[in-house]
Amino acid sequence: MRVALTGAGGIIGSAVRAALIRAGHQVTPLDRAHGWHLGQPAPLQGHDALIHCAFAHAPGRYRGGEGNDPAAFVAANLDGSCRLFDQAATAGVKRILFLSSRAVHDGHPAGMRLPDALPPAPTSLYGEVKAGAEAHLSSLRAPGRDTCALRATGVYGPGPAHKWRGLFSDYLAGQAVEPRVATEVHVDDLARALLLLLDHPAPLPSLNCSDLVLDRHDLLARVQGLTGCPHLPPPRTDARALRTLDCAGLGAMGWAPGGTALLQDSLRDLLDPVADL
Length: 277
Prior knowledge:
The protein has helices at residues 11-22, 70-90, 125-139, 165-172, 187-199, 216-227, 248-252, 259-271; strands spanning 2-6, 26-30, 49-52, 95-101, 113-114, 146-152, 154-156, 181-186, 206-209, 212-215, 244-245.
């Protein structure tokens, strides 16, 4: 299959690109390294599928990623995504997959289990942009053209700028770490979900993608075990208010994330940039 992949140079996009190539797909990377950025016309003619992972935001921030320029944030990410989806439809792309976010669910009640088909209830501009792009994409579903928005939770995985680099550095240095509990999925598991969606005969308009409920206490206790760090992890957080994603749709397709075993296997690579092991 010939697949156009936006954001191909990012942490998520790089993992998705590698997974696509391993699976035998022909990938057209669309990112700044290849002369393309979100908002520009994309060369989509002749492609079977589009996977849209690109997102313009302030470094290290998604919620709040608009910084001091919300209008530019919306123009790049909502307007740019909608134009991209329209271009794909016009070019005859038969499968369009969009990396959305669990942020579309932030307005639902605390502690709720969130099913795949739940309507969005965003509370941040980030969530609103993702929900708006989802709605436009869904409007393009038609016979011979399938679409799916994959609502991913927090994504972790290897790379010099991975999401926990600062957290690990602070903990190993003995600095105070704020207690927190969140949901997470490994980037390779996310990439596998997207590959499954490429081949599925009739994907749903939206699907959830999540794996672990992970407390920083437990994460840093694992780091302590690997490094011998003398500092205590922060106390556990009450997780009862956490909204968790029900991933029944992906599970029915055969998707099974790596859980704590994959987390443990990944930790040494995640620590290498910040600790001399």
